Amino acid sequence: MTDLLITDAALPDGRTGIDVLVAGGRIVNVSPRIDAQAAQVIDAQGMLLTPPFVDPHFHMDATLSYGLPRVNRSGTLLEGIALWGELKPLLTQEAIIERALAYCDWAVGKGLLAIRSHVDVCDPRLLAVEALLHVKEKVAPYLDLQLVAFPQDGLLRSKDALAHLTRALAMGVDVIGGIPHFERTMHDGTESVRILCELAAETGRLVDLHCDETDDPHSRHIETLAMQSLRLGLGGRVNGSHLTSMHSMDNYYVSKLIPLMCEAGVSAVANPLINITIQGRHDTYPKRRGMTRVPELMAAGVTVAFGHDCVMDPWYSLGSGDMLEVASMGLHVAQMTSQAAMRACFDAVTVNAARILHLDGYGIAPGNRADFVLLQARDPVEAIRLRATRLLVVRGGKIVARTPAATAALSLAGRPALVDYLSTSAKGVRGGGG
Ligand SMILES: [Zn+2]
Fold first, then answer.
1. Ligand 1: centre distance to CA 118 (Å)
2. Cβ proximity of 51 and 33 under 8 Å
3. What pLDDT, on the 0 to 100 scale, is given for residue 192?
4. What is the pLDDT of residue 78?
5. What is the whole-number distance in angstroms between the Cα of residue 17 and the centre of ligand 1?
6. CA-CA-CA-CA torsion sign (295, 296, 300, 304)
7. 376 contacts: CB under 8 Å, gap ≥ 6
8. From the CA of 174, how far away is ligand 1's center (Å)?
9. Is residue 175 within a helix (H) or strand (E), and if so which, with residue range?
10. Distance from residue 240's CA to the centre of ligand 1 (Å)
């Protein structure tokens, strides 16, 4: 007997009436009407079964610290950076671990089962690195946490940052980070990209830089990042996060830049909630949106994903670990409203993000680990529209979270009950808990 059989599911690629069979923590069959005995059978009733959400850009060392030591009154990036500076000396390992574990619980409840988190290495104690390595081990049974050694105060600008970064990698941090636009000069930024990419070539690591997170169209470190990736043969291992300066760049320049990114195999992560909040702050009106050129990058074949970046920290007081909220904001900011573009926004928080993290065995296909989420929606667009309830979250064939279906029972005199309008959505719900 097998462990779990999900029947009558819709998949993100548009297939419907699909059964998924799980044995030994792995998916063993995905096809219409599987005839098999299983210890547990769940009728999905036509609802969407998706591979888990993946957040390709997060800061877990700062999350849930909102209000410590005080709130960000102006809500600006600059006050946020100042606040983080005030908070850093007060951090303890225990507090970082406690907050990170709490966030991972939220994440799992939202079907978010893989997170790439940057961790600040500009602290000789490497307190946050130790704390998050502990968290990574602790959550491994239910969440993939990938860590990036991130010199928040600049690789060259902050004393001994390269030594701390190298030590963090030796301790077990996975990915090489950086922040070229925050170095003292454009030249230092260029130099930091060279150093970090050479380190990646020597050590076989992935690279993910906070890159050009500014409205300055002359911030062109993404060009250097692509060129170094090409020179050192790092194709497929390098990601540029934010890339907000591309929003403001000259169109002719971008017409050369995007093909270079393609040629170099560099991927891109936009952080819609944060980009729309933080960019354009020096503008009066019209105000720029600041998010990078998502549809143009996607059309050219660049892998583009959306990250959450912040949840209740010195920079951003909102957020809940809901990658459908992230997808929705990305869709709106980039005006990606065609059917295909809306579906692409769903891919940006699932399959594209998984590719950037180099996740093994991701996706609903035989042989892969049985990780998936049953949503109270029939397709990816409806999932984004409703921020659909995560009816079931499954990791390695085991149910790790479930949420009761959202229902409405309002009835006004002389009108049909609201619940009647929702009956199609609600249909999948009643037995959905399995
Ligand atoms: Zn970030």
1. 7
2. no
3. 98
4. 78
5. 40
6. negative
7. 47, 386, 388, 389, 390, 391, 405, 406, 425, 428, 429, 432
8. 16
9. strand 175-178
10. 11
DSSP for 63-128, written as a single string = TT-TTSSS--SS--HHHHHHHHHHHGGG--HHHHHHHHHHHHHHHHHTTEEEEEEEEE--STT-HH
- How far away, in angstroms, is 232 Cα from ligand 1 center? 25
Question: What was the pLDDT predicted at 2?
Answer: 85
Token pair belonging to 22: 């799980």
The pLDDT assigned to 197 comes to 98
* Ligand 1 geometric centre to CA of 154 (Å): 13
Minimal CA–CA distance to 113: which of 330, 329, 381, 393? 393
Give dist(CA 52, CA 434) in Å, integer: 18
Specify the residue for token string 């980009």.
275
Residue type, 156: L
Q: Does residue 213 carry a catalytic annotation?
A: yes
- CA dihedral sign of residues 414, 419, 422, 424: negative
Which two three-digit tokens encode residue 408? 């409405």
Which of 86, 183, 191, 213 is flagged as catalytic? Answer: 213
Q: Across the beta sheet with 207-211, what order do the strands follow?
A: 53-58, 112-120, 144-150, 175-178, 207-211, 238-242, 266-270, 304-306
**How does the average pLDDT of the chain come out, rounded?**
93
Q: How far apart are CA 32 and CA 15, in angstroms?
A: 9
232-267 pLDDT, tens digit per residue, is: 999 999 999 999 999 999 999 999 999 999 999 999
Question: Which residues are within 8 A (CB) of 284 and not within 5 positions of it... i.e. 6 or more apart?
Answer: none
Indicate if the pLDDT at residue 82 is higher than 60: yes
Residues in the chain: 434
Which are the contacts of 416, defined by CB distance < 8 A and separation ≥ 6? none
Residue 410 banded pLDDT, cuts 50, 70, 90: low
Ligand 1 centroid from CA 135, angstroms: 19
Q: Residue 281 in contact with residue 248, Cβ under 8 Å?
A: no
Amino acid at 229: S
pLDDT digits (tens, 9 = 90+) for 102-148: 999 999 999 999 999 999 999 899 999 999 999 999 999 999 999 99
Q: Find the 310 Cα to ligand 1 centroid distance in Å.
A: 7
pLDDT at position 392, please?
Answer: 97
Query: What pLDDT is stored for residue 428 in this prediction?
Result: 40
The helix (run of H) or strand (run of E) holding residue 178 is: strand 175-178
**What is d(CA 413, CA 400) in angstroms, rounded to the nearest whole number?**
41
